[in-house]
Fold this sequence. Notes:
With 497 residues, this protein is of the alpha/beta class. The chain is built from 16 helices and 19 strands.
Amino acid sequence: MTKPDYAPIHLRPADNGLNRLTEVLKEAPKSLLGKPEPRIHTPYNDYPSKGQELIDFAESIFPNGFMDWQKHLAIHANKVKPDNRWAHPLFTAIVARQNGKSAYMMARILMGLFHWDEKLQILSSHRLSTSVERFREVVQIIEENEEMSKQVKRIRWAHGAEEIETLNGNRFVLKAGGAAARGMSRPAVIHLDELREMRDMESFASLRYTLMAAENPQLLCYSNAGDATSLVLNSFRERALAAAAGAKDDIGYFEWSSPTDEISLENAAYSNPALGVTIHPDNLEATFNDPADVVQTEILCRWVQTINSVVDASSWSKCVDSKVDLDTEKLTWLAIDMSPDRRFAALVGAQKLDNEQFVVKLLHTWENELQLDDKAIANEAAVYARKYPIEYLLYSRKTSGAVAARMQPAGIPIFEMDAAYPQSCDELLGAINSQRLRHKGQDELTKQMLSAVALKRNDGWIIGRRASGQAVCAAVATALATHFATRPEVEIDILAM
């Protein structure tokens, strides 16, 4: 009998609570090994690299050193130009969770602290607890290494301002929050953990521009895939894609992500380079029945509109019908909503179809960087109210009451929906899941629907305008219109047997 084609898996030594590079696993088929090279990356270059020094150092602090994907990252993230400056002063690594990003980051921190003479390194992440955990792990590695322990001058424990200082004056400082580097003098390296959680450019700017006066600065970012609110990460990805297409940019970007949204081990091998080494295939498969958006982001490392979106992307896509449209002769419900900051607004129309189905269509959107004009919106919305035979223009007094108040004197019937809003949201979700709602697949409507996040309340749940993190006016308006479009023709539409 021939032996199956198996790859050996490292066995874990005595667990010190830190080593995440090895785990007791049974043998895994080679076909299920993770991909060591990123699927998406900025162009490679021929500059020399200091990465081998980091790889050798990892051998001394981790029982099995770096995995292949970490070695690949180390080589390309640490390329140096002829003047000995970093070839990539900004480098981002995107990998699914639990694949060894933190281990790589800790090795890089320690390398700079004890071997590369980097005078100040800062670690920042969105959550203080995450930063503190990384700091504890770095300290533990130092305490278990006699050579490094002898070089430590002091270790300071302070809530949100932990610090390690060496005898030669090199420092590693933990900072949390958007203003992490303010007041810090010329850091050589800033490590940003979970970059996807950084949702405004101002927070990034407070970190980025402290590096301006540094001799040879580097900003190193680590994350898994983000969503539409991950502004900083998304901007880096756009730059990377442009660089891969030929644009001149010194950004470094490596993304281990699945090529499709198929939930399978073969697809997950692209986003989980540690598969078959420290991650057992069974552990991945156990997550495949979790919410689809979560699996897409956390396991397949693919971008979604919103993590934990109230509307499932697959269910929404099943409601697409390119042949449906609003009829200018049929009874119509219009619904308008405006974002709390009054910068975005949307108008949606709905009509009943046969077989208890109904169609929704995004008719108009408004956007202004400062603030929208109620009068202008009312005038433009009135055009649609006269085009279709409407029963009501539906609105929320909290967001679009001023617009509705301008339309009522013109003879346009309006109806306030605040009391029925929780029920409307529930009706919307039911109509989507049952495919009674039909839509034309409009890009903007889809974007806003998949960005909607549920906000729990005592009387149920609603689509949270602020909680969603971006404009979801079209989603809210669709919910309002759904309330009337799903209204039964008779008072009793469920008959007792």
